[in-house]
Design goal:
With 185 residues, the chain is mainly α. The protein has three domains: 52 residues, no CATH class; 86 residues, Alpha-Beta Plaits; 31 residues. The protein has nine helices and three strands, in the order ααααβαβααβαα. Strands 1-3-2 form a three-stranded antiparallel sheet. Helix 1 crosses helix 3, helix 2 packs across helix 3 and helix 2 runs parallel beside helix 4.
């Protein structure tokens, strides 16, 4: 297979190889190794490395170095996915924080404080406008109330959950104790 890549790259002209080097992240490991071997053989490694460094940044999810701000919070993945699609269709790079964890078990949504739709800081105003035009409310952000689906679960906070568990456990223990004592022990 490596010989096939080497033959393919040997048949390409210098400009094509340098252009391919700029996008070499998209290649499988064997193809990338064969490409850089051919570039070294032709003495184009420096030019290709410069093209790689100056390659245009791909549109898509924000990188970890971006300054992200949360523009909307969601209880459900379907609604969050819809909002993300709207933003991406308008050319706004966005990210759903905790998406994969919530996919494993949706109960994690409440523990994590809901799914967070995040965008670059400079796109936040436009993203909020688009989402408001979509007819959804911004949740728990300055100047806005909870999202409609949040109203049902407002009582389900960690503090309330702990209190509920303690009271329920005490009730179960009293029922067990009553059953034990009523048997004459």
């Amino acid at each position: 297979m490596d010989a096939d890549w080497a033959k393919t790259y040997a048949a390409m002209d210098d400009g094509e190889l340098v252009a391919l080097a700029a996008e070499s992240d998209e290649l499988v490991e064997e193809a990338r190794a064969a490409l850089w071997t051919e570039l070294r053989r032709r003495g184009l490694e420096g030019e290709a490395a410069e093209a790689y460094r100056n390659r245009p940044r791909r549109e898509g999810a924000p990188t970890p170095t971006d300054n992200l701000v949360t523009v909307m919070l969601f209880n459900d993945l379907a609604r969050a996915g819809l909002a993300r699609t709207v933003l991406e269709s308008e050319g706004i790079r966005c990210f759903l924080a905790d998406e994969h964890l919530v996919r494993m078990d949706w109960f994690y949504t409440f523990m994590l404080g809901r799914l967070k739709l995040q965008v670059n800081e400079q796109d936040a105003g436009r993203a909020r406008e688009l989402l408001e035009a979509l007819g959804t409310e911004l949740a728990d952000l300055p100047g806005s109330g909870p999202a409609p689906s949040e109203r049902r679960f407002r009582w389900l906070t960690m503090k309330n959950f702990v209190w509920f568990t303690l009271i329920y456990s005490a009730f179960v223990m009293l029922v067990i104790l009553y059953g034990y004592l009523s048997q004459g022990h």
